[in-house]
Amino acid sequence: MPRGRALPSVAGVSTAIPRSSILPVSAVAVIAAAALLIPWWGVSLSVLATRGAMTAGLALPATAYLSDVFLSLLAVGTVVALAVALRGGSRHRILSIAAAGGVVIAYATSEMVKVALMQARPCTRWAALSACDATDYSFPSNHAVLAMGAVWVIATAARRTWATWAAVGAALIVLSGRLFEGAHYLHDVAAGALLGLAVPALLTIVAVAVTREPRTMRSAPEISRRRREPAPARDSRPGE
Length: 240
Fold this sequence. Notes:
Blueprint: H1 11-16, H2 19-37, H3 45-59, H4 66-86, H5 90-117, H6 142-158, H7 161-181, H8 186-211, H9 215-228
């Protein structure tokens, strides 16, 4: 491998999105991972959080619309961010398209996992706010995949910290809404959030490495300029 072409790494993230946007995205990833990995004494944390959210949802009927409304807003934000990116430089376009392609792959992966695991939705066990589709499966949450995938695309394409924070806020509402509705367990939305971030981020980091200009190419103009410069004239007078 040429010296100028580095392997994909976490360092590529700071090239794909502004450093100030890494914090909110990373915070969601850490919280989602904690929800999946941290043990809970005496009862499943996922079951406990899900039942509490479903009870709250029954008391707040308006929460039935949260997920779909804010996911639609994220979709609009994603389209706008991609439209801005397509008018930018070629590398920015490639990174943004890679991020969007990652969302498609993450969604397809989520669908395959659903069919493979066939986990029933929590609304089949407890009273829920919304009508329960017992023929559909719960793990992972497609809403979470799409919401967090949209966050990554907006962070990559728009490259505005305020846009990333706004997208993260909307995505958290989408995730919470799925719990209120009784459509998903906590571990469903946590896994979906991680999948929706990980796949687009991986493809973006690969795109960063592939599109990086080799160091030898970056230095070529400087080398050419130096070759064209005349050599300094030597003083032919004898030394004193």
